[in-house]
């Protein structure tokens, strides 16, 4: 039996970062912010690599690509996404620019570096194994929005993996869980009117909203504030805020209603004549719940051991962001482990190529260890 390897350049080169990993990441970053264009580039890579793939949900605006083992019962899934936050008009550097160990461009860190890593791992194991390994790469196209593709995959039982690996940026720390998230709107409505000379005595919806926002607990973050019907010295008819809630446990869902009820009533008493309202923002997929992966799970323990042997401290964290991994983690053991970088979602986004190479090495050793001598699942 041949030794399993995912080295994208064949034999060990001694280079800190596999050159093809840099080249593929650069190419994907240069595809820009249109997810379907980047998805087509991924399909072309797979076709040239002679790896089977297919699009799921092709008639939607959130198609999902799966590649490698296409059976429903799978061994390991590498979960990635191709979409990025739309770019600003003037990026700090041309997409795909390399300066030292940094590769710049929208999506370089979140997460086209992780996507390139996954594709090369799949190709390496696919080519070096005498039979296709139980490994599948999933590429979604709306992770930065509502993760509809990931939730549809899980809700319809289209995947049944033993383990999900997500190379999202974690600064080389191992995340065995993540917080959840929900968004709320809260507003106050009044009669408007002239405000000059009466700022301290007039009930302004903006003042009531500010009163409420200032008293929100630390796990609530205002995302936007807006008013309706303002003028130079005219009170607004309505003031509204969108507030994000970070959920560490599922019990936090009920706590939010209690907090908004209390704070709305306090503001209404302080500013008589105003009417306060709040409600959960509508969403076409579930709001991402918090999850925790069991650290005693056999494959999770093995991944942690691999990271330690490769020189990582294997620091275990709870991911403080949300994404596709919430959908996967709510169903199956899920590990998030990826490179370091900076400026995510901004025009100066960059990924640390040396860090990306170290992550690739951990994934390669872990997968080679679990695939050695094993037959694909039936």
Query: SSE order, as H and E?
Result: HHEEEEEHEHEEEHEEHEEHEHEEEH
Oligomer: single chain
Give me the secondary-structure category.
alpha+beta
Biggest β-sheet: strands ordered side by side in the sheet? 1-2-6-3-7-15
What is the total domain count?
2
Q: What is the helical fraction, as a range of percent?
A: 25-40%
Assigned CATH architecture of the largest domain: 3-Layer(aba) Sandwich
The fraction of residues assigned to DSSP E strands is 15-25%
User: Main beta sheet, described?
Assistant: 6 strands, mixed
- Cα distance spanning the termini: 20 Å
Count of alpha and pi helical runs:
9
CATH structural class of the largest domain: Alpha Beta
Spans of at least 5 consecutive residues whose pLDDT stays below 50 are 1-5, 7-15
Fourth-tier CATH superfamily name of the largest domain: Zn peptidases
Radius of gyration: 24 Å
User: What general outline do the C-alpha atoms trace?
Assistant: elongated
Question: What is CATH's topology name of the largest domain?
Answer: Aminopeptidase
Write up this protein.
The protein has 378 residues and is an alpha+beta fold. The protein has 2 domains: 19-179 and 290-371, 3-Layer(aba) Sandwich (Aminopeptidase); 182-280, Alpha-Beta Plaits (2-Layer Sandwich), CATH 3.30.70.360. Helices cover 31% and strands 22% of the residues. It contains 9 helices and 17 strands. It has helices at residues 19-29, 35-48, 108-128, 148-155, 205-213, 252-270, 298-309, 324-329, 353-371, and strands at 53-56, 64-68, 76-81, 98-99, 102-104, 135-140, 163-166, 174-178, 180-189, 220-228, 238-247, 275-280, 291-292, 316-319, 334-336, 341-342, 350-352. The strands form 4 sheets. A 6-stranded mixed sheet has the order 1-2-6-3-7-15. The longest helix is centred in the first third of the chain and has 21 residues, at 108-128. The chain is elongated and about 80 Å long. The two termini are 20 Å apart.
């Amino acid at each position: 039996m041949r030794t399993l390897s995912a080295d994208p350049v064949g034999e060990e080169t001694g280079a800190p970062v596999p050159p093809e990993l840099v080249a593929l990441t650069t190419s994907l970053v240069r595809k820009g912010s249109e997810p379907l264009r980047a998805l087509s580039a991924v399909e072309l890579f797979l076709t040239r690599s002679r790896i089977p793939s297919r699009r799921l949900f092709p008639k939607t605006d959130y198609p999902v690509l799966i590649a490698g083992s296409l059976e429903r019962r799978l061994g390991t899934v590498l979960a990635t996404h191709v979409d990025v936050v739309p770019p600003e008009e003037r990026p700090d550097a041309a997409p795909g620019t390399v300066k030292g160990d940094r590769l710049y461009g929208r999506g370089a860190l979140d997460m086209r570096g992780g996507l390139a890593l996954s594709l090369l791992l799949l190709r390496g194991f696919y080519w070096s194994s005498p039979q296709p390994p139980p490994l599948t790469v999933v590429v979604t196209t709306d992770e930065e929005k509502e993760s509809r593709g990931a939730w549809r995959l899980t809700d319809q039982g289209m995947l049944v993996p033993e383990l999900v690996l997500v190379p999202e940026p974690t600064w080389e720390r191992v995340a065995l869980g993540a917080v959840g998230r929900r968004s709320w709107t809260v507003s106050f409505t009044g009669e408007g009117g002239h405000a000059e000379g009466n700022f301290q005595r007039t009930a302004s919806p903006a003042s009531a909203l500010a009163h409420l926002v200032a008293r929100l607990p630390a796990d609530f973050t205002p995302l936007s504030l807006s008013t309706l019907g303002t003028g130079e010295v005219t009170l607004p008819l309505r003031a509204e805020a969108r507030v994000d809630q970070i959920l560490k446990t599922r019990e936090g869902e009920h706590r939010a209603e209690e907090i908004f009820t209390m704070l709305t009533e306090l503001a209404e008493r302080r500013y008589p004549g105003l009417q306060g309202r709040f409600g959960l923002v509508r969403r076409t997929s579930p709001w991402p719940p918090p999850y925790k992966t069991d650290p005693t799970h056999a494959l999770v323990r093995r991944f942690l051991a691999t990271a330690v042997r490769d020189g990582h401290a294997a620091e275990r964290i709870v991911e403080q962001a949300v994404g596709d991994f919430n959908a996967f983690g709510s169903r199956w053991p899920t590990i998030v482990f990826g490179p370091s970088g900076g400026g995510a979602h901004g025009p100066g986004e960059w990924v640390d190529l040396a860090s990306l190479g170290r992550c690739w090495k951990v994934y390669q050793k872990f997968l080679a260890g679990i695939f050695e001598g094993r037959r694909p699942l039936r």
